[in-house]
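2024-03-11 09:14:02 DEBUG pipeline.ingest accepted 1 chain
2024-03-11 09:14:02 DEBUG pipeline.ingest length=744
2024-03-11 09:14:03 DEBUG pipeline.predict start
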Amino acid sequence: MKPPSIRCTANDGATASDRQLGSGGSSSVEDLAFQLFAATDLSAVLTKFLNILSVVLGLGLVIFFHELGHFAVAKWCDVHVERFSIGIGPILWSRQKGETEYALSALPFGGYVKMLGQDDMDPNQMTSSEIAENPRSYSAKTVPQRMAIISAGVIMNVITGFMFFATCYWFGVFEPAPVVGSVITGFPAWQADIRPGDRILSVNGESIRSFSDLQEAVILSAGDVTLAGTHTDGTSFNHILTPLQSSSVRSVGIRPGAIAQIADQIEKPELISDAGMALEKASTDFLPGDKILSIQPKLREGESVPVTADKGDASPAKPLPFSLLRYMTSRYADRELVYTVERSEKTGDAEKTGATKTVEITVPPSEIRSIGLWMAMGPVLAVQKDSVAEKAGIKVRDIIVSVDDQEPGKTIDPLQLPVYFGDRGGKPVKVVVKRTTPNGDEQVELELIPKVDAPGWLDSPDFKASPLSIPSLGLGYQVQPRIAKILEGSEAEKLGVFKPDMKITRIDLIHSDPTSDAPDALGDAKTPKELDLATLDAKEPGTLEQINWAWAFAEIQRVPNRQIRVYFDDGKNNGSEVLKTHEVATGWYRWFRGFNGSIWQDDRELQKGKTFGEAMSLGVRRTRKTANSIYMTLHSLLRGSVSLDSMSGPVGIAKIGYMVAERGLIDLMMFLGYLSINLAILNFLPIPILDGGHMVFLFWEGITRRKPSSRVIGWAHGFGLLFIISLFLFVMYVDLSSLIGGGD
């Protein structure tokens, strides 16, 4: 019997709130049925049928090779094999050949080799003296022979997994490029000034080929890690970083890159943009498969673009890096942007020949949503190495109390400081900070010259306690969830309940129409978003005192059509009020245009063995990396840092397999390779009834020179069977809940 599988979720970083990488879209029971039967021609139906068939055959092949390992070694050891079955449960087909019955069973979720003296459903055979007298019984064989038989299935899966991988690398595999997509403010990579678009070349002196190499090296490291690479301007860097423990995983705060190409798998064009955003007012719609080749702002008289929009080797064949798209939308947040898009022709012969056309799409800016409340300035939480802030003498825990004679929280919104400094690149800015010393508080006056072309809000806060970055200074700071000012004439002022120094403990983002099914960036009316600003989960980075209002503010900007319920506490009274009016911060514009975060294609590069030997080497490397990632996921599951909901059972595996099969044979073979290694590792866990459980008994017998009693084996197998059945039912529940709910 084979265990359920788990989906590997190891990643370098905490949570990714600004965007999600992937192919986009979702799948539910209705979606899959629609895809299968809505095809208008026979060839489309045949293609979908062949995809399903290839998944079934592929999964069967993985199980077949596992059982073949047991079978072959058992025969080699002259054990009487009674049955060789692919699948479990009622037998659908069987044929007797010699002493062995070969069968196909009803449930294709496993398989088994039934040997004389070894039957998981009848563990007493293992201790039966009568059966042991038969020299061809499993129990009559020596401990090393039985160990060889039990481990053969796992070994065969490792070998076939390696062969799947090596074959794929012989033809070529696209893997995530070792390019920085985003950097988490305050994390080691950010402090070292590693930037979006940078390429990582080596970790601890070992060259890397993909982003997953970087993830593995950091997560498995025991101490500091040395990252070497190149910045986007061609200069080299070599930094020694001390990873942080983030959600029980070591991280330096680097996320993978993406490209400005909308995934072909997006089934509905309306899923490309979020409700209420500027993208809804674009001159024409973006479509699945669109490649953004350049972005140009509407220039003012005498103005030029300081950073060319084709930076990053973009060409008609290659879209912009996602990091450049982020830069342009932040740098020119207040301008119309013209996106030059390469689009595939979808009609007639043009579609068959792969013809493309170029389309220009204009997207207007949109002003920031205001809730009529300014919050209090908090301390500096992080400072970058060799940054403007560090060179000027700004230290962690300093509080900025004045910027060009403006007091944050009183005459300037603390949330606008990134934009204020970004707009003054190359010009002196007078800053006063309050610093706590052993002799008490003191104020220090500084003159800073912000970096040029470092726009504000380029990096959104990633989690509750994430610092808000000022890229032009190289520091991150907190905005406290405590009211500093109520804006005159605002809805918040008219309600008459908000007071200075009042704490904001929670924000609920709710739909004005609770019966609406119209989705936005955070879901539909059935899923109100609750932003808790009073507590911090133990697994989240930072401390309770560092909870940042900027995080809640960024979430508010993603759903401009929602009403905002504000929960407050002044120490004596607490309550809540709903802000219904859509008010704007005049002259301050959103740093994004409203693309849904899940639509972008990953930045992937071709990995191909130039020789047979290199393909074999890449296969070994992938096998080792896959095994490491599975062990890391198991470790995270045991520590509770990864939810049990991340597990997949047979339905989930089949669903993922179908989605992979749609992408082609190479992707399907890589999936089968991963599944083979997954099966090998999980099946060798020390759980009674699995191969690993059998090995535990064999080690006991080898050490003590006596077999476990029938009572011990019976109890152990009963526990193992109960555990496997319970786990199977649980993952089936997770699978079906995901399908019915349309989850990914």
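2024-03-11 09:14:41 DEBUG pipeline.report Residues 1-30, 36-40, 308-316 have pLDDT under 50 and may be disordered.
2024-03-11 09:14:41 DEBUG pipeline.predict end
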